[in-house]
Design goal:
The protein contains nine helices and nine strands. It is α+β, with helices and mostly antiparallel strands. InterPro entries: cNMP-bd_dom, cNMP-bd_dom_sf, RmlC-like_jellyroll.
């Protein structure tokens, strides 16, 4: 009983810290606490790492929106997709992920199948010299308010063939993404981005919308990214990585 009580106290401390850190308030905070209380009354464990996927669907969407929406406002995920309604979707497609320290999320040469929004923790990106694995290597730090996966966005919005529509091909990462600390992130998966974009194309016409999106992506990409970059900052002022 003592061990169980100690474990429960640790869970409660972690959950309280997580709720405070993300500044939940009002109805959403109350609903989260009600859900946790119900689980405890049923004598079930509640862990931060599995809390979001276990929440009721509407509350889960509210939580994702609260955590991610501000991060999307100043990057071209929101700039391009705001008319698609990504920030207003009732069922948010972003998937919550938790990684331990020193964990490889993406390796150089891997296909990029998601855009990762960093909401807590520190990750490093590094690349070998000319992708050959020899010579000097370069590392850059990403933290809360930054993202990785710009190549996937560019590829979804400006496809050069029909491969994008069945996901038979994906862009290749020119960098390795590895956690330095424990990390909380949200992933926008390639197939979800594709479905959102296709839905918009079907309503507004592919040629017109894709032409506008391509021009906007290229302008933002040239301003904020080196040619081989996969990452960028979210928030007031871009940072070249």
């Amino acid at each position: 009983m003592k061990m169980k009580s100690s474990k429960r106290q640790k869970q409660q401390k972690n959950l309280k810290s997580w709720i405070s850190k993300h500044e939940f308030h009002g109805t959403t905070k109350g609903n989260i606490n009600d859900y946790i209380g119900q689980r405890y009354e049923a004598d079930e464990d509640v862990y931060v790492e599995t809390l979001i996927p276990d929440l009721p669907s509407e509350l889960q969407s509210d939580v994702k929106r609260h955590i991610c929406l501000d991060l999307l406002k100043n990057i071209y995920i929101q700039t391009i997709f705001h008319k698609v309604g990504l920030q207003h979707r009732r069922q948010w497609v972003a998937m919550a992920l938790f990684f331990n320290e020193h964990h490889y999320i993406v390796r150089e040469g891997d296909p990029i199948d998601a855009v990762f929004l960093i909401t807590e923790g520190i990750v490093w990106t590094c690349t070998s010299n000319n992708g050959e694995g020899s010579g000097p290597r370069h590392a850059e730090r990403l933290e809360k308010g930054q993202y990785f996966g710009g190549k996937l966005l560019e590829w979804v919005l400006t496809p050069t063939s029909d491969d994008m529509y069945n996901l038979s091909k994906l862009p290749i990462s020119s960098k390795t993404l590895k956690t330095h600390t424990k990390v909380e992130a949200f992933a926008l998966m390639a197939h979800d981005l594709k479905q959102i974009w296709q839905s918009k194309l079907s309503r507004l016409g592919q040629e017109q919308l894709q032409s506008k999106a391509a021009a906007r992506v290229q302008r933002i990409w040239r301003r904020n990214h080196p040619k081989t970059d996969d990452s960028n900052s979210i928030g007031g002022g871009s940072r070249k990585l």
